[in-house]
Specification:
The protein is mainly α. The protein has helices at 6-49, 57-101, 122-144, 150-168, 192-202, 204-218, 226-256, 269-273, and strands spanning 106-110, 171-173, 180-182, 275-279.
Length: 285
């Protein structure tokens, strides 16, 4: 795994430390809640045994109310701490897996980020920014799945027919006073591709012409060339990463303010850690 240094190492360490702190706090809260619930149960039983005019009743009733309120408050705190623990642990695992997936010659460099302007409503700003990220990712899926333009599809059709014809060319035995034709991998059950390969070998022009007719009839609006598609994907990836870096800034600011905001587990690990990836330069011999 690539070794982290400086800011990125501190960032990942702080996320893992936050998960550990939240785990310890949850355990402490569970113990305290168990104690309070036991005391509440005793007080409720005691209260049930008192008559309506017993002078002890008001004090015990007040204690039952106080215990119930404290349990409710601590239960909500426990849930928030569990959410924090689960989110931080999941994000840390994601970052570790991303680091393990990098090639050995990768080099991580810190990415300088412009200071964040004062934001009054971080949760609202964060929600709007995440919506923009979702919209760009949806656009990316559409671009990635877009059909190729007709000219490029026709070239791929030519390549496909040539490949099928090469696969469909049969073996012909002319010796021993006989003529036998058999496939390279003879099988009692031929697949559709086997049949298509044989036809492409026997009638390549007809197969190509039929494919090109289908391409002309089916190419949808919005088809893209491969070069345009790759260029658009690169542009969208850069925009998404830039927004995710801004998102991490907002999260860091919110956490310093004591606000409970959570990282998206599927956010770009490079944005979370504040790094960029480059390949190590080879030394001259």
């Amino acid at each position: 795994m690539i070794e982290l240094r400086d800011t990125a190492a501190r960032k990942l360490g702080s996320i893992e430390q936050s998960a550990g702190d939240a785990t310890a706090l949850v355990a402490s809260l569970i113990g305290r809640l168990n104690e309070l619930r036991n005391v509440l149960l005793l007080r409720e039983r005691e209260l049930a045994c008192l008559s309506e005019d017993d002078p002890k009743r008001p004090a015990i009733a007040a204690e039952v109310k106080r215990l119930s309120s404290e349990i409710e408050s601590l239960t909500e705190t426990q849930k928030r701490r569990q959410d924090r623990r689960d989110n931080d642990a999941q994000v840390a695992v994601q970052c570790r897996r991303w680091l393990e997936s990098l090639p050995r010659d990768a080099v991580l460099t810190a990415v300088p980020v412009a200071p964040l302007e004062d934001v009054a409503d971080i949760p609202g700003t964060l929600a709007a920014l995440r919506q923009r990220i979702d919209n760009l990712k949806a656009e990316r899926r559409n671009v990635k799945g877009a059909a190729l333009v007709g000219t490029e599809l026709k070239q791929r059709a030519r390549d496909l027919v040539a490949e099928l014809a090469a696969q469909g060319c049969p073996k012909i035995d002319l010796y021993g006073g006989k003529l036998e034709v058999f496939a390279e991998q003879d099988s009692p059950r031929a697949s559709i591709r086997d049949v298509a390969s044989m036809i492409a070998w026997a009638m390549p022009d007809a197969v190509l012409s039929a494919l090109q007719r289908e391409i002309e009839a089916r190419v949808p609006d919005g088809a893209m060339s491969e070069q345009s598609r790759l260029r658009k994907l690169g542009k969208l990836d850069a925009e998404i990463l830039e927004l995710e870096r801004h998102e991490e800034q907002l999260i860091e600011t919110a956490l310093t303010r004591g606000q409970d905001v959570y990282r998206r587990p599927n956010a770009n690990a490079a944005a979370i850690l504040g790094v960029d990836v480059a390949k190590r330069r080879k030394r001259a011999a």
